[in-house]
Amino acid sequence: MTEIRVRPKNDGGRERLDSDTDRVVALPNVTPKRRRRYGGALLGAGVLLLLLGALGLGGWRHYQAGLAVAATEREASTFVPDVRVAAVRAADSKITVTLPATTTAFEAANIFARTSGYIEKRYVDIGDKVKAGTLLADITAPELDHQITQAKATLAQDQATLQQTQASRDLAQRTNARDSNLVQKGWLTLQQGDNDQLTLQAQQAAVGVAQSNIAAQEAQIRILEQEKAYQRVVAPFDGVITQRAIDNGSLVQSGSTFMFTLMHPDVIRTQVFVPQDQAFGLGPGVDAMVRVPEIPNRGFPGKVTRIASALQPGSRTLLTEIDVPNPDGALSPGIYCTVELFIPRKTPSMIIPADAVVFDQNGLHVAVVENGVAHMQKITIARDFGTEVEVHDGVKPGDQVILNPMVNLAEGNKVAVRNKVRTS
C-alpha cells in the first residue's frame, strides 16, 4: 500500500510526497475565500494611495511653477538691460555724388564741301593736329573758273552799256534844256517840248537799269569767287582730325559731301545727368573730379560750367556739363568715365550707424537713450551707405542711439549704457 503525505508550501499551497517514487507532486492551491477578500481590499487601498500621491505631486509642481513665473515677472519688471550706444553726428556740408558720364570735345565740327569738284590734294589724315586756318584739302573745278571769266565779261558789257546810256541821257538833258526856252518863246511847238522831256526821263531810267545790271553782275562774281575760295578747305579752329571721308580724286558735291571731323581736345566737356534728389544745390562753379577706369591713379579736376534749366521729364535728371582742362591730351572725347560732384548741402542731415535702425510694424525708427530711458523715434532715410545711413529727421546731433536693440525693447524701458561706440 502506497503512503501519501501532504505538506504545506510557503506560498500557502500544498504539495504531495509519493513514498514509492520519493517525488513531490504539487496539489492545487486552494485559498480560503476570506483571504481573497483581504487581498482585494489591500490592492484598492494601494491604488488609492498612488492616486493621492500623484495628485499631491502634481499640485506641488504646479505651485512651484507658479512661484517661478511670479519670480520671472518680478525679475523682468526690475531687469535693466545693458546696451551699446553710438552718437548721432551731423553730415558733412557737401554731398559727394558719383555718377557715370561720357566725355566730349569742347568744340567739334563736321566739315562738308562748300563747292562741287574733285579733290586735287588732301593734306591731313586722322590723328593730325592742326591750327586754325591750316589747309586741309584743295578742290579743283575748272568750270568754275570759266563761270568767273564769263561773269567778268558780262560785267564789262554792262559797264559799257551804262556808259552808252549815260551819254544818251546827257544828250537828252541838253536837248530838253535848249528846246524848253524855244517853246516858251513860241518858236517850237509844245509837242516838241513834251517829246524832249519824255526822252530825258527814258534815258535816265535806262541809266538806272544799267547800274542795277552792273550791281547784280558784281554780286554774281562775288558768289563765284567765294565758291572759288571754298576750293581751299581750311580748319576753322585748333584741333585734331578724328574722321576722314575723302581722298585724292574724290568727287564732292557742294553742301552734301562730308569730308572731315575736327575736335578741340585741350578742354574736355563732360555731360552727366544728376538725379532730382541730388540736383538741389548744384550750379556753375561746383567742384568736380573726373575719373577713368583705365587710368586708376589719376583724377582730372574740373568745375560745373553750365546746367539745364529744367529736369528731363522721363528720368527726372538734370543735364550738367563739366569743363575739364586737358593740356596733355590724356583724356579723349567719347570715353566712359565717372564724375564725383561735391554739391553743397541745402538741408541738414544726420549720420547714424545702420545697426541702430529698426524696421517693424511701426516702420523705420531708432531707440534713443535719454536719462537711462529708451525712446522710439521715427526716422526718414535719405541715403544708405551700407554701414551708415543718412537721415533727415527723428534725431539730432549728439543723440545716443542703441545699437542692435532687443526685440522686446519698448518705449519707456529703462536701459543701462555700458559701452559707447565712437562713429567716424
* DSSP helical segment count: 4
Beta-strand proportion: 35-45%
- The CATH architecture designation of the domain at 120-234 is Orthogonal Bundle
Return residue spans where pLDDT drops below 50 for at least 5 consecutive residues.
30-34
Helix content range: 25-40%
Class by helix and strand content? Answer: alpha+beta
**How many strand segments?**
25
Secondary-structure element string: EEEHEEEEEEHHEEEEHEEEEEEEEEEEE
Domain CusB-like beta-barrel: 272-341
Domain Multidrug resistance protein MdtA-like barrel-sandwich hybrid: 108-257
GO molecular function: efflux transmembrane transporter activity
Organism: Bradyrhizobium erythrophlei
Keywords:
single chain; 424 residues; alpha+beta; Helix Hairpins; six-stranded mixed β-sheet; 4 helices; 25 strands
Topology:
Elements lengths: L3 E5 L5 E5 L4 E5 L5 H46 L3 E6 L1 E2 L3 E19 L4 E6 L6 E2 L4 E6 L1 H44 L4 H40 L2 E3 L4 E6 L6 E2 L5 E18 H4 L7 E6 L2 E13 L9 E9 L10 E9 L5 E4 L4 E3 L2 E8 L2 E6 L2 E4 L3 E4 L8 E3 L13 E6 L3
Parallel strand pairs: 4-25
Antiparallel strand pairs: 1-2, 2-3, 4-24, 5-18, 6-13, 6-17, 7-9, 7-12, 8-11, 9-10, 11-13, 13-16, 14-15, 14-17, 15-16, 18-23, 19-20, 20-21, 20-24, 22-23
Helix pairs in contact: 2-3
